[in-house]
Design goal:
Length: 361
């Protein structure tokens, strides 16, 4: 139950974030941001805990930044999904009851989805043998979750090494595989709002889309339905494999995905050097109208930023508004901010994500 004082505190914090984003974008005459809020609790689909020994017991633990000696012991985690909270005590009881599962276990990670799927990663300071797998198999069945065991140079999978998510955008349901160990959006409710905003901002187009940093195809799937065809790039092999599976699972066939960094694609488009991974791709056949970017926290490097300047429209999702503002400053002489948005992926923290549409002047 959300207390009125909690709702009021959240509203005040969200207003502060909105003011901070407006201040960052004020030099570029950006319009007022559209604001997409978060659930106040049970919004986080991923969680990672260290285990802290107290006598014969191990407890879920977290620490204040920079302090690894004073654990905060947890029985539940209200910001995490209901599925994580349901799994936490059952998993703890299992490792306490089984020497095979509990011996030298030091970290637990949960990955869940809005659709209720779950994967648990157990990390150990010891090699994992067949006895571990034989103990993990019935536990996975009881919990209704996949389990991955990890130790140095070793990985054992009971069930699947990914979870399946389902997100609805503009009335259509998109299905996603989200691999263990790969990036996925932590706040599913806000992610769905981000996808809807990007879908709306892109609009119905009769040209092509270039996407940089496509990850597992989170944005690629809905955006591909708005354009003629898409050229998407991603450097992580696990993310590329997940994106290819997601495209196939959703019957989307107008996307060409290449494993290149944004910097390498810039070199290819500038014809600085050829790449074997582009041997079957006719870059000159594309009629790009929009480039979509969702870069890491460092933002776009200067060369990639210059590459985006070629496009009439730049649709930019940012997990760091400070580097977003720095990139806009580089582009502001040729492009103006016509729409912007605040996505509160991380309520109760100072972090925020933003989106902007830049259009050629």
């Amino acid at each position: 139950m959300i207390r009125p004082q909690d709702a009021a505190a959240y509203s005040a914090q969200l207003a502060d974030k909105q003011a901070r984003l407006r201040e960052l974008l004020a030099p570029f005459a950006a319009p007022a941001p559209e604001v997409f809020d978060s659930p106040l609790s049970h919004y986080r689909l991923r969680a990672e805990f260290r285990l802290w020994r107290d006598g014969e017991q191990r407890h879920y633990a977290m620490f204040e930044p920079g302090d690894k000696r004073a654990p905060i012991l947890l029985d539940d985690f209200p910001i995490a999904s209901p599925r994580i909270n349901e799994l936490m005590p059952r998993l703890k009881a299992a490792w306490q009851a089984s020497e095979t599962l509990g011996h030298k276990l030091f970290q637990v990670e949960f990955l869940t989805t809005l659709s209720g799927d779950a994967l648990i990663t157990l990390a150990y300071h010891r090699p994992l043998d067949d006895a571990w797998e034989q103990a993990a198999e019935p536990l996975a069945a009881i919990l209704g979750a996949s389990i991955v065991g990890r130790s140095r140079g070793q990985r054992r999978v009971v069930g699947r090494d990914y979870v399946s998510e389902s997100l609805r955008v503009a009335g259509r349901e998109f299905r996603y595989r989200q691999p263990e160990g790969a990036f996925s959006q932590p706040n599913g409710a806000v992610c769905q709002k981000m996808l809807g905003w990007a879908y709306d901002v892109l609009g119905e187009r009769d040209d092509d889309l270039l996407e940089l940093y496509c990850g597992n195809g989170n944005f690629t799937l809905p955006l591909a339905t708005r354009v003629n065809k898409v050229l998407a790039t991603e450097i992580s092999k696990s993310s590329v494999n997940a994106a290819l599976a997601n495209l196939a699972d959703n019957g989307i066939d107008n996307v060409t995905l290449v494993r290149l960094s944004a910097e390498e694609l810039t070199q290819a488009l500038n014809k600085v050097r050829p790449f074997r991974r582009l041997a079957e791709v006719d870059l000159d056949s594309y009629r790009f109208g929009t480039v979509f970017v969702d870069p890491p926290r460092a933002g776009m490097d200067p060369d990639t930023c210059e590459l985006t300047r070629r496009f009439e429209r730049i649709l930019y999702i940012s997990c760091n508004p400070e580097t977003l503002a720095a990139n806009i400053a580089q582009l502001h002489d040729t492009h103006r901010v016509s729409r912007c948005a605040l996505f509160d992926q991380f309520p109760w923290t100072h972090h925020m994500e933003a989106g902007v549409l830049l259009e050629r002047r």
